[in-house]
Each structure stands twice: as C-alpha cells, then as structure tokens.
Amino acid sequence: MTDTPTVQDPQLRVLMRTATVKDATMASAVLAQSGIQTRVCSGLSELLDEIGHGAGALLVSEEMLAGSGAAELAAAVADQPPWSDLPVLILARQGADSRAITTAMEGMANVTVLERPIRVASLVSALRSALRARRRQYELRRILEDLNEADRRKTEFLATLAHELRNPMAPLSTALAILKRKPLTPETAQPYYELMGRQLDHMVRLVSDLMEVSRITRGKIELQLDDLALDQVIRGAVELSRPLMDAGRHTLEVHIADEALAVKGDNVRLTQVFANLLNNAAKYTPEGGRIDVFVEQDGLGHAVVRVKDSGAGIPAAMLEAIFDMFMQVSGTARAAQGGLGIGLTLVKSLVELHGGTVGAASEGANRGSEFTVSLPLLDHGVRAGAMAAPPEDTMAAQHRILVVDDNRDAAESLAALLGLLGAQAAVAFSGTEALAKAEHFQPSVAILDIGMPGMDGCELARRLRAHPQLHGIGLIALTGWGQPDDRLRIARAGFDHHLLKPVDVNELAVALHRLDGHGIA
C-alpha cells in the first residue's frame, strides 16, 4: 500500500509545458528554490504520457491547448481514478478568454487560470495550494485502499465464519436425526451425546473468541493479576491443546529452564495465549510433525516462551500482518482445519496487556514457524496459594427454580436439565406469566432471560425483588448479552449472577451452590 507522498515523491511533481523553452527553464529554477519538484515536458504528448507515472499538478500554457490540445488534456484527466482530481494550472495570455481555455474549463473540474505575466510569489502560492490539495487526494486514496482491504477481509471472514459454523452443525444435525429415528439404549446413544457435546463446545468457542476480541480491541477487558509460576501456565496450555496434538499425531516437547520463572499476570488469559499458539502450531503442522516449547529468560529481566513447529511456515511478507484481525496465510486455511483468523490477534492483544511483546519468525513456506512471547519477570517467586484450584462444581440440592425465557425450547430443556440435577423446576415464557407463577411456585431461585419482548429480564428482576414474598429470591441472568455495559445494567437490576448462553453446567452449578451457601430461602 502506498503511503502519503513526500515533497520528493514523483507523485507530487509538477508537469510543465510552457510557451517557450526559456520560460520553462526559468520557471523550473524558481520553483526548485521554493521546494517544488518539476518535470519539463517537450510537448503535450509527453506531458500526457508522464501523468501515468505520477503528477501532483499540471502547469501548461494556453498555447499548448490550441487545436485538439484542450480536449486531449481533458480526456487524460478524466481517465484518472475516482479519487483523483488532478489540479491543472493554465498560464493564459492577457485579454479576452480564448476558446482553448473555455474548452479546458468545460472538460476539467479542477482548473485554475493564471494570467501572464504572473508574479513569482503568485505562481508559487498557487502551486503550493494545488499540491496541498493533491496530498489530501493521496490521503483519500490511502483511506479508500484501507477500506477496500478491510471490506475484502470482512467478506472473507464472513465466508469463513459461515463455513466454521456449518461444520459443527452438520454432525449435530446428523446425530439428532439418528436419535429421533432409531430407538437406542443409553449405552449406544452415549457416543452421539458426546459427539453433540463436542460440536456444541466448538461453536461456543467460536462465538466466545469473537466476543473476546471485540472486548479487547475496545479496551473493555480487565486482567485478574496474580503472581504466576510460568511453568504451571505452560502446562495448563499444553493440556488444553492436547486434543489437537493427539489428533495430528504430533510430537510435543516442552523445555523448561531449571530456574523457576515467575510473572505477574492473569492465569486464565496467559493460559489462553499459549494454548492459542500451541493450537495454531498444531493446525498448521502436517500430521506427524514436531512442536517444541522453550521456556527461558533473556538475562534482561524478561521471561521468554518460544513455540516452534515444523509446519507450513509463513511468507516473509506476512510476518507483520499475521497478527492483524481476520488474517490467515493465503492457501493454508484448509490445511489449518478451519478457524476465524482471530487467534493471533487475541494473543498479541493479551500479551501487550501484560506489558509483553510477541513476534513471529519463519524461514519460508514449509519450513516451520516460531512465535516468541516475552513477559516481564518478577524478582521473587510465587507465593503460596497463588495457583489455587477453582471451587468444586457442585449442584445445590433442593432448589426450587423458576426458568423464564420466551424461547420455549430453551426454557423447557433447561428446566428438564435442572430436574435431572436434583432441583424442582418450573417454566414461564414471559415476564407477566413469571410473576403470576412465582406467587404460587415460591421459587428460591429464578433464572431469567434478558432479551424478552414486553417485560424484559431486568424489569422482571426488579419486580421480583420488590415483591414482599419474593424479595429474598436468588436471581441468575442467563443471556446472550455479555458486554461490559450489559453486565453493569444487569447487575443494577438486582441479579446475583450473570451467565452467558449456552449455559455451562459447571458454571450454573457453582452459581447455585453460592446462592445456597448464602442462605437463599
């Protein structure tokens, strides 16, 4: 992509064809003293030819427009790209307007007529104004090129997203068709349930990545910083990427320095960083390849993690752009087993949020690649308990739970699941129905959808809180709205927990357990 030209750029030169060679020589020398680059043309045909090699403005004498000259010049200017409005300055003779100038002005939009003799200062001033306008046109061209590139990437991304979402939908649809048409024992049906669970998890990851990159790029993410043992973070990432490694029959070796390395960071986010890099290596490495992870320090106060693979490699021209949004190396998307092209964008953003850097290196196509992450080292070890395990996922028994969602399938299936987990569950499909049912059912917990027509989940929550018999009810928002502004609005409505659709059973169990622990009646 061409940057905005500088003064010495050929695209800002003034193409000249004056009445005489002497006039051209004198004008060129005067303009050069003012920092204006010129190219003196021997005739109109040469000037028209030079336009194709770049021009900031044209300076021609009236005499050059005689005959068909004005029409030829107008045709050449009209042949410019849509962003271009090439300035044309005509040095005219004193007196009445000539037919040549009239033709030129009718055929071109950006024409300035300067009557001879002209003061040097006036000529310089007019050309500087013309060149300033030309610079703005080049800036417009750059913006249009950027927009076209962004539009191209967006189109490719939407096509990739559609493809990636269809992939898990196909086995989901097939498994459902089998279960509906063929009576199966629990044992023979179990593989289909597991298949459906895997495909649903894949779809959830796709959507979660999209939401994550949106939050990060808008600066709407907060890190939960703690002192972390880097080797434990790497081991966690290896476990997450193990299925892809095994599927590709790759050899994975982790080389960790003898000295323990500690960093200040968010355990979940850093694990995500290295899992993304390992997944990326697994996807772009042919079956049976080798992937190495090196964890060391550089002697300058930084921990350095290198993920090296024997895979497809990265062309030199792509090394800088590889971290851009929706960017995938051309020709490798199919070999990569899909993906939205946002994994490395997430990596770069998260690493920079930790005060670190990430870079890519490759010797070329089919020669592997290496990603290097550098993070500031702590000058002390990790304190005890910093890597404590999350709370155990347990379902609080004997809850009476009201599920409210205008999507009947969503409400009834969740109620059925809660019943299997030991709770008493009832459903309502609107805010009004929920209020009426709550008075008779007397739930200890209500799980509410937010985006319902009429009375939305936030208004329903406020009314439940205000009800004299229900003010102590536990409220869980289960919704697709997960942006920071949404979370703030939902919290202000009185919810105890905010979960995202599709529900993660373990997260729901933890939320219910916490409500039970606080003595919700």
Automatic annotation (TrEMBL):
Classification via PANTHER family: HYBRID SIGNAL TRANSDUCTION HISTIDINE KINASE C, TWO-COMPONENT HISTIDINE KINASE
Chain ranges of the Histidine kinase domain: 160-379
Main location: membrane
Modified residues (4-aspartylphosphate): 449
Keywords, ordered alphabetically: Kinase, Phosphoprotein, Transferase
One GO CC term on file: plasma membrane
Keyword Endoplasmic reticulum listed: no
Molecular functions per Gene Ontology: phosphorelay sensor kinase activity
Entry membrane topology: Multi-pass membrane protein
Annotated localization: Cell inner membrane
UniProt cross-references to SMART domains, sorted A to Z: HATPase_c, HisKA, REC
Catalyzed reaction equations: ATP + protein L-histidine = ADP + protein N-phospho-L-histidine
Broad EC category: transferase
Domain Response regulatory: 400-516
EC numbers, comma separated: 2.7.13.3
Record's protein name: histidine kinase
Record has Mitochondrion as a keyword: no
